[in-house]
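Lecture notes, part 5. Sequence design as translation. It can be helpful to think of inverse folding as translation between two languages: the language of shapes and the language of residues. The source text, in structure tokens, appears below.
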């Protein structure tokens, strides 16, 4: 008689499951873009004047860039959600 052995937690083919299983080219590209955006934002830390229609606001440039990045990401997520 032989004992059956199996490794629990592995899928067929020896692949790991879960969201952290593989670093795909798309994930790598997004990660590089995020790092580059953060470097760009934190290199531009001086105060700047921004005109929003009528009022003029003085704030650090990185806050304005980060705010616009977040707005852009939300718009992209909204339109990608509508396509499905």
């Amino acid at each position: 008689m032989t004992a059956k052995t199996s490794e629990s937690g592995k899928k067929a083919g020896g692949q790991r499951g879960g969201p952290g299983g593989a670093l795909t080219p798309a994930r790598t590209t997004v990660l590089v873009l995020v790092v580059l955006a953060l470097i760009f934002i934190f290199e531009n830390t001086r105060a700047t004047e921004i005109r929003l229609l009528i009022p003029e606001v003085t704030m650090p440039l990185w806050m304005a860039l980060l705010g616009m990045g977040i707005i852009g990401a939300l718009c992209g997520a909204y339109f990608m959600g509508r396509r499905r």
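The translated text above is only one of many valid answers, since several sequences can fold into similar shapes. Residues 61-83 form the longest helix (23 residues).
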